[in-house]
Write a structure and sequence with these properties.
Layout lengths: L7 H7 L4 H4 L31 E8 L4 H11 L1 E6 L6 H16 L4 E5 L9 H16 L5 E4 L2 H4 L17 H10 L3 E3 L18 H4 L12 H4 L4 H8 L7 H14 L5 E3 H4 L5 H10 L3 E4 L4 H4 L4 H10 L4 E2 L4 E3 L4 E3 L12 H13 L5 E2 L9 E2 L6 H16 L1 H9 L23
Helix pairs in contact: 5-7
């Protein structure tokens, strides 16, 4: 029997509808998150610099959210949004045709990425079907990339009901097709390290996990489990046994180096925002890997601002602006979602919190998604040149298939040791 799967990975699989991502399974009487300190939106860059029209490289859009999407883009100064929920080729490419319909309503402003249909994974017929579906998405519907949700490694199973790992050789055809098409692959692997810690009110991500306990992979007591709704309890009990947090990161890195002519965007700050040194090493070892900052400002923002600023300066050509915003007619997701649904009034402050962190010099300011952690961050005041690349130019380069193909032609397979030992959990990834 296939396991039910809900949460962020399920949301990406459901693609255009965003039903799980924007709704989820809510708990009665959720814990209340404290109100964050207001973050100033005033940039600290020189007066001569003007923020360019922004490309949000990480969004999830529904075709019924057209009016909201246009309003949000105007308010936040977005020139383009990358919709990572473009859908698969199943049912005569219904999802992809709907995504194209959405992008056609805002010409030049919405770029769709395809998502695989994992049912039937991972035999030769599946590989052929998904490879052809990706080609059709690009050549018939104008899609510009591929999105892989964290369900790969955490939820998707093969026909023997075994979890499929990111570096599974049966998926090679898909990565090769992306290379042939010269399109980027946005890939989400694992989750924040605290999702592997014991589930309790002491877990630093309790405001999220207390509403969505099935997002967690660590142990949970029967006494605590009994406090959740029955559906949530059942989903927790049916969670598959997954690899360790660091084990998943290593599987992902083996994938990157096995396909040097495929450009991977390791979303959520390389899937390891807790450790700048690891992500620095990841980019050093793998020239075919870029990262985005989506839904992780609160994580990497806990590092000293000088260290974070130096990271962005060093890797200024390989970091993309993204937020993980989800937009439908009736629901919003601002980096994450909990028991209290955000409203349109929350969207502009959400973007302004990003700008305040990246452009300003404020101390102890709110990060964009306080539900992801009850702490503040110190702004990093990036230079205008770095901001221009982060907000727009790096994204434009990845969407230019000719330029991307030229870049990848220079990449050589990495022979450096992996950043983490097999299934080792480094000190910074252990529960306190």
């Amino acid at each position: 029997m296939k396991r039910p799967y809900c949460g962020p990975a399920g949301a990406a699989v459901l693609a255009v509808a965003l039903t799980a991502a924007l709704g989820g399974c809510k708990r009665t009487e959720p814990p209340a998150a404290p109100p964050p300190k207001a973050a100033s939106a005033a940039p600290a860059a020189p007066a001569a610099w003007k923020r360019p029209p922004i490309i949000d490289f990480h969004s999830h859009l529904s075709v019924d959210g057209l009016q909201r999407i246009g309003t949000i883009m105007d308010q936040a100064g977005l020139a383009k949004v990358i919709n990572l929920s473009g859908g698969s080729g199943r049912q005569d490419a219904l999802q992809q045709r709907m995504a194209k319909e959405l992008s056609d309503q805002l010409p030049g402003k919405i770029v769709n990425f395809a998502t695989p249909w994992w049912r039937g994974c991972c035999d030769a017929a599946w590989a052929e079907r998904e490879s052809q579906g990706l080609k059709d998405a690009v050549e018939r519907y104008g899609f510009a990339g591929l999105k892989i949700s964290k369900g790969l490694g955490l939820g998707h199973t093969d026909q023997s009901d075994q979890l499929v790992a990111p570096d599974d050789l049966r998926l090679s055809r898909l990565w090769q097709t992306a290379a042939e098409l010269a399109i980027p692959v946005c890939i989400h692997v694992a989750d924040p390290r605290a999702f592997w810690w014991p589930l309790s009110q002491q877990n630093e991500r309790w405001d999220e996990l207390g509403v969505h306990p099935y997002w967690a992979y660590g142990p949970v007591s029967e006494a605590l489990l009994a406090t959740f709704p029955e559906q949530a309890q059942e989903m927790v009990r049916q969670r598959p046994k997954v690899a360790s947090w660091s084990g998943l990161l290593q599987q992902a890195e083996r994938l990157y180096r096995a396909h040097p002519q495929t450009l991977f965007v390791a979303v959520h700050f390389g899937n390891a925002a807790e450790d700048l040194d690891y992500v620095d090493g990841l980019l050093t070892r793998n020239a075919n890997v870029d990262i985005d900052i989506a839904a992780r400002v609160g994580e990497f923002g806990r590092h000293p601002p000088e260290k974070v600023r130096a990271f962005f300066e060093k890797w200024q050509d390989r970091v993309l602006f993204g937020t993980d915003i989800g937009i439908s007619a009736e629901s919003l997701m601002l980096g994450s979602n909990g028991a209290v649904e955000p409203t349109m009034a929350d969207v502009l402050p959400f973007y302004q919190a990003h700008f305040a962190y990246l452009e300003g010099h404020g101390r102890a300011i709110a990060h964009p998604s306080p539900i992801q952690g009850r702490w503040t961050v110190d702004a990093i005041g990036l230079s205008p040149g770095v901001l221009d690349k982060l907000y727009s130019r790096n994204a434009q380069a990845l969407l230019d298939r000719v330029a991307l193909k030229k870049r990848l032609a220079l990449v050589r397979p990495s022979t450096a040791p992996l950043g983490l030992a097999d299934d080792a959990t480094p000190p910074w990834a252990k529960a306190p």
